[in-house]
Write a structure and sequence with these properties.
alpha/beta, TIM Barrel
Length: 288
Amino acid sequence: MAIPTWTDTHCHLDAPEFDADREAVVQRAREAGVGLIVIPAVTPQTFVPARDAAHRFGGAYALGVHPLYVHQVPDNALALLDEALHRWREDPRLVAVGEIGLDHFVPDLQDEASRALQERMYAAQLDLAVAHGLPVILHVRRSADGLLKHLRRLRDAGRPVVGGIAHAFNGSPQQAQAFVELGFKLGFGGAMTFERALQIRRLAASLPDEAIVLETDAPDIPPHWLYQRAQDRAAGARSRNEPAELPRIAQTLADLRAWSLEQVQRQTTANALAALPRLAALWPAARQ
């Protein structure tokens, strides 16, 4: 078994796609050297499963309402989030508020009412993160400027969010710099492995060393070696991503930056601990 040295900063290990073989998925990750997995919840219904998975497998978790589910959560979702953050505030495995943010890509969520609801939920969850002193894990899909607007609002009001991670980042260099200036790290995963993902690969190659963290977003965003064409998926082909893919994804980052794999591991781990400070207490235990 490889020495556990990698941190997957974004993996939905509690997702139904892993119900049949979750223990085997974690075992493969450990054998690949992935020592710590961060599991972001996406609705109040997933708060307990995300927490349970983190405790069962020695990981960490975040609590939040994902923008894709704003129409599916109960009316008291924010109150439930606040209650859970209070209830588990002493749990060292609770490391962030997330996955939260804005999605300006999915067609069903682009009407005026849906966009407004997304923004209200995002702004309110930022307020909760500030109140609880936690960083945030952000969903960024064609929405960087809207996310930055609210982060700057809180900063200018003297109530800044204490950093976090802009997950699966694919914005412009200017937007990337704005997140970095606000204390955020940027997450890179499977999308970076596609040669045609020119913008993402340019960012991965050129951002400051301290700005990058690694993630899989498993079971989603498979790297190019797992990707299946639409017609293949329709025929039953699987393209499920797993945290065990992280070291191979890391090799892509090493190639893009002309780094050794050891340098990628060392730098991205340090960046993850800086983005989510509570991970520091979990990382040594993950290596034992």
